[in-house]
Amino acid sequence: MKKSLGTMVALMVVAILSVIFITAKYSNAVNIGKDSRFIAYDNGTILDTKTNLMWAAKDNGSNINWTDAKSYCENYRGGGFTDWRMPTKSELKGLYDDSIFGNNGYHLTKLINLSGSFVWSSETTGPNTFVTSFLYGLAYEEPSSSARRNRTLPVRTSGRETTAVNETNTEAPAAAPAANGTTKQWWEKGYVPPPKVEEPVASVEVIAPPAEAPAAPVEVVTPKVEEP
User: Fold this and answer.
1) Which residues are 31's β-sheet partners?
2) Which domain holds residue 153?
3) CATH number of the domain that residue 139 is part of
4) What is the pTM of this model?
């Protein structure tokens, strides 16, 4: 029993150390190159700062059908991440740039290496799926069983480990200070809204009544006494 417990403890320690090692390795990825809006890291990932998408630095390297391509992307672990997937047509279209002659003459950043011009996308239409050409920038229907000339390029949506782009900064509403001097936000328990500040009452101008002019003196006329 003690031996089994010791083995379990040893396995737990090894697992914890492995997680720490992996986290330390991939949380400190070093920027090794930049090409316009793309940044290359030393863990085999490429960040598109315009779309906030993270791409694998290279495709799978050989002909592959759609089913195997999907599995390849979902099981890809580049950079230590586990949320890789197959890209959409729109995402591949956003990667295409006719003004660039990249590796092997394909029209995308030189930081990404394609070994073939056609890349699978995740959309399907009946028995067919779509591939995007990085020679012409167009998407074509292709039987999912076809492996000729087709490649796959894993992608993921970049999370908090990188700076988000096109993010609108919204100021939080003002919060009332708590009794202990700290400030609670509106979503926290115990938040007290600030007192409503009433507008000051406008002063009333008192107008004095106009002064009346003094009355004119009345002339008293003494009656004339007639002589006898």
Assistant:
1) 41
2) 28-157
3) 3.10.100
4) 0.59
